Amino acid sequence: NAQSAVVAVSANFTDTAKELWALFEKETGHRVVLSFGSTGQLYAQISQGAPYDVFLAADDERTKTAIEAGFAVEGTEFTYATGRLVLYSSDPGFVTGEDTLRKGEFQRLAIANPTAAPYGAAAIETLKALGVYEALAPKIVQGVSITQVYQFVDTGNAEVGFVALSQINGREKGSSWLVPQNLHAPIAQNAVLLKHGEKNPVAREFLSFLRGEKARAVIEKFGYATGTP
Amino acid sequence: MVESIWSPVRLTLELAFVTTLLLLVVGTPIAWWLSRSRAPWKEAVASVVALPLVLPPTVLGFYLLILLGPNGPGGWIAGGFGLPSLAFTFPGLVIGSMVYSLPFMVQPLRNAFDAVGERPLEVAATLRASPWDAFWSVAVPLARPGFLSGIILTFAHTVGEFGVVLMIGGNIPGETKVLSVALFDYVETLQWREAHIIAGGMVVFSFAVILAMSLIERRMSRARG
Amino acid sequence: MVESIWSPVRLTLELAFVTTLLLLVVGTPIAWWLSRSRAPWKEAVASVVALPLVLPPTVLGFYLLILLGPNGPGGWIAGGFGLPSLAFTFPGLVIGSMVYSLPFMVQPLRNAFDAVGERPLEVAATLRASPWDAFWSVAVPLARPGFLSGIILTFAHTVGEFGVVLMIGGNIPGETKVLSVALFDYVETLQWREAHIIAGGMVVFSFAVILAMSLIERRMSRARG
Amino acid sequence: MSERVGGIVASFAGRLGAFTIDVAFEIPRRGITALFGPSGCGKTTILRCIAGLQRLEGRLQVDGEVWQDSARGIFLPPHKRPIGYVFQEASLFPHLSVRENLLYGARRSGTRSDGGRGFDDVVELLRLDALLERSPGTLSGGQRSRVAIGRALLSRPRLLLMDEPLTGLDLRAKEEILPYLAMLHREFSIPIVYVSHEIAEVAQLADHMLVVSDGKLVASGPTAATLERLDLGSVVDRFEAGVVLTCRVVEQLSAFRATRLDHRGQNLVVPEIQVPIGTEIRLRVRAREVSIATRRPEGISIRNALEGTVSEIVEEPDTAYAEVLVDVGGAKLRARLTRLAVHDLGLKPGQSVFALIKSVTLDGTPAQALATGVSGN
Amino acid sequence: MSERVGGIVASFAGRLGAFTIDVAFEIPRRGITALFGPSGCGKTTILRCIAGLQRLEGRLQVDGEVWQDSARGIFLPPHKRPIGYVFQEASLFPHLSVRENLLYGARRSGTRSDGGRGFDDVVELLRLDALLERSPGTLSGGQRSRVAIGRALLSRPRLLLMDEPLTGLDLRAKEEILPYLAMLHREFSIPIVYVSHEIAEVAQLADHMLVVSDGKLVASGPTAATLERLDLGSVVDRFEAGVVLTCRVVEQLSAFRATRLDHRGQNLVVPEIQVPIGTEIRLRVRAREVSIATRRPEGISIRNALEGTVSEIVEEPDTAYAEVLVDVGGAKLRARLTRLAVHDLGLKPGQSVFALIKSVTLDGTPAQALATGVSGN
Ligand SMILES: Nc1ncnc2c1ncn2[C@@H]1O[C@H](COP(=O)(O)OP(=O)(O)OP(=O)(O)O)[C@@H](O)[C@H]1O
Ligand SMILES: Nc1ncnc2c1ncn2[C@@H]1O[C@H](COP(=O)(O)OP(=O)(O)OP(=O)(O)O)[C@@H](O)[C@H]1O
Ligand SMILES: [Mg+2]
Ligand SMILES: [Mg+2]
Description:
Chain A is built from ten helices and ten strands. Chain A has a five-stranded mixed beta sheet with strand order 2-1-3-10-4, sandwiched between helices. In chain A, strands 7-6-8-5-9 form a five-stranded mixed beta sheet, with helices on both faces.
């Protein structure tokens, strides 16, 4: 069906994607189907012929791999959002700034799996940049995704954790510290047009919509930075 | 949310129902063979049946994806229907769920068939029942508790099954997005109120289904008890 | 990779072993009660036992997080050890695995106890065996096939179990990072060669364990057959 | 169900654990055959081989049809053998009601209400009316046995194999069922192979006997002839040994419900047997029921005194007993006496004596009188 | 195991489906009690109530100990009742070898080799030596029964409950086991409650009888007295009716392996009973074994002729038979004759006659001679 497209969306972008989707459909009248999953899983599916037209990854690695492996169309890749890392606790007043990390008065620090999730890698970089990694390493617990980290913290199983700004956006509890972007490499989330959607005008339209002002406003509203591609 | 939930609900029930039904069809002869065969390697086969459990669902799902995909046998079959692959289709989901739930059907059935013993089938044979006839009129009714267990475990597991389905299904609304995946979505996006409602609904509904099946089974056996 | 893999392997085996053992301890009396009680609501209890299966593991894991956490009973227990929560600890993993695998132990055991029937226990009573004694000397040996099934399903499921463990484990190397999580990491990061090796190893090893258990069981029963 | 030549010709050999069985026997088409022998001798095994439930090496031919021939690789599966099998344990289907149990075989062999074997007849004979809707689990031991017999009868067998079907039944039930079996065999010429420990039952019912001991056939032949053989003492309980006399009905004494018989010129009076004058019947006379008198006794209630000659006296060592064989017109009657009596009467071989017969049992046919032993007092 | 007053005092009432049971009975401490009645009358149910396996309303007191009293909420669980139970079906533990089955109860009640009930004795009595390492699944029906009996015997019961234990056993096995049971009861004063369909077995073994029909007790008392009652005809097979005579041993005729007895001044000779001169013993005389002579017979092998007076003649309608009661010094012998014989001899009440007894059965004790019926020929 040329009038619709399937977009594979990294799970951490779910909320934002849904609002974008509504906006897009309202504006263009085209149908878009969103399919969520972890970035690795979506990639595995793409590699096995999944009928996805667009891939919104949570990093900039697997989009590149997809192009190299011939699953995606060269030259269509761009960063649609840049994640912001936040140190978060569900206890109001617990997080006061980077000194919370330096004092280390907690038993568990939750981060996302650094090998699979960019937020995890960024968290490690931040700890190292602050020079507290060695001290805090034994207290680190890993969540498989950034969502899980939030759950760890929100249920109080871990006192603090590195989550995405988009996750705590609009939630009026707890305490947090927005990690300065100079403490870690940018968390670029890239989008790419997949081979399956190469001839799908809706897919291309969706990608250009994503680059547009309206979309960027929405994305920023949810706590991401957007840079010019 | 209300409208959007019915599609996953329908899909979940369909999947659980079809999977359970097909696993009954596939698992029963396997269990029967395991119970009656004297082949020396039958315990090896029995062990293989339990293996799908050993792999993490997403990993199993990944291998199934390869099998079902365009380069695997599944793609070859799918080619017959003009599809590139069985992955990301409802039949693909069914196959995945069946593989993963196979041990839950076969183990209880085999035990039940073992417990039936030789004698009732011998009696049936002396009463002119062919092995096929005796199987249906004697072995199956006597193995009813095993069927109940197999059905309950398979049904519940398919309802809750997630990793494999997510991997093979690809979370496509109306087609492969089952309830557990929808629930996953809500949890993933931290919409916990919705998650609680769905989880609660699934638990209550499954409880009702399982309880009803058990009570019917026990009533049937008490009628004869 | 070689050194780093042994810690998850050890942990996985430990977890599967401890979970299976504890589930034997917990599941046996539950199954026995379900088999013998005449309480009208026992089928309701039986259905509840099957419910952990109905929820997707990650969702179940989420609820377990709440239960194990500082505001749940688990946190209260953990407080005794000076920890805020049972999550991210080995005991927490064991509890999670037990909840999730409970039906696999209880269902086959209950069926096996049902199949034993009243008579052998009546005979034992006339031979001066107390109910406790008769349970051990008659009911348990006669229910051996059910124990085998329960152990196999629980063991295999715990080895492959993933969602729950992932959810409450925190992936702490040497403490809660089990093999299935490691495998997940490899798949997630597209390191498929490593993934194949681990998956293959898990399958082969589990096959060997299950086959060995089955053969021992059948040999024991053949000695008496 | 046509009358064919043949009957059963069988031979089986094989091992069950440490137990070896090796038997070859023939069973005539007409008649009831008793399989007799001590516990553990292989009776059930033989029955299972005939039914095809146990597969040993051997050959089995029934009415000219080959059911098994290991040499030629022939083995008719059990469900294709038109048999009725009553197992040693009732083995009812626990998931079916009594009625469904009874109908299980009936439905699969197309039984309708054909004379004598219709559902209602069998239910009445076995007094199962009140039990039809019950579950086997709630039946008493004897009730279960009766259902098992009924189930086998209703499966339209062309050969009935019964493994001690009447143990656990009271005398009244036995007395009702035994004549029915005799009738079945007579009217539908269904051969019956019947395992029993009780020589009384065997003698009453069986035309033929196979005596098995430790997996070997030690004797076989017509019941009468087999029971006459002295050397069965160790297998057949000696008290129950006896012989069979063939007599002819000569007069009905209706006023006394008695019948007068002729045995080679001598008269016997037995309780009424309702058959036409001239019918040949067989009487079984048990050794313990026979006394000896040296002259014709008078004023005594024992009506039957057959004149004969002592042909042999066998004293049993270490017991109070002796067995005296009396030749009565060619038939050899056996009398079991105390050695004291032999001594007091001065019995010697060749001596002329009267054999007093207190009671007799009708052997095999006719059915009407089969139900009970028949006293000739 | 001390001799206490009491025995068993029991009453049970309740329903099993549509079946109602309501019985109250006493069983004396000493002796073997037969539970007798047609199939489905409730025998097994009564036994199960005594064992505590079935819980109906009622009371049960054994040797003064209250095992059950529903009114007071007392119910001793089965494993605390020192009973031995032989189930109607052998019910062996399939997962244990024969040896382990035998030892199951023995171990739990501390049996050692104490006289007569040691492991080796029981194994020998029941001929189980060759079977000890076998699995129950491979045993024949009779072999299973024997193991079940052995298992119960080895559990050191203070009360033995046996549900048709000897069905499926051949005569030889029965003859070996019955005297053992009698001995058990005599030497260890273990009361035995014994379910049986076979009146011969009952008469031979039991001191007491409970006759049950359709859930009700229809007769109970000493075997002799119970068998004497004519109105049991419908329950007790009439052929087996008889009476018991109490006699005293007066002489051993060792040369003939015979013993001379005195019954109220008259002599009887029976096969050897090895007890001291003067011992009182009981003989059971079955009606079918008694003939009548109008004058003292001579030259006849029947050694025992008791002089007496015809007290009553009961003709059985529609049969060839009549029952003649003969008063022998106060004891009433029953003779079953044909009506023809009654007519021919012109028997009348008051007439003086001789009762000829062909064979007798020792009743209850002593054990040595219990094994077999005893011919008085
Ligand atoms: N659960 C039940 N429901 C209905 N009737 C029952 C149930 N249990 C037993 N009965 C009936 O109770 C009666 C007594 O049974 P019981 O086993 O005591 O008989 P029994 O005297 O031992 O007979 P048998 O000599 O045949 O073994 C039988 O008629 C049986 O059908
Ligand atoms: N699997 C086996 N292993 C060893 N011995 C066996 C096996 N099966 C049967 N037997 C033996 O074979 C013999 C014959 O058994 P079968 O059941 O034919 O005896 P039976 O004559 O029917 O005895 P019963 O009158 O006691 O029922 C028995 O001695 C039994 O112990
Ligand atoms: Mg047998
Ligand atoms: Mg009974």
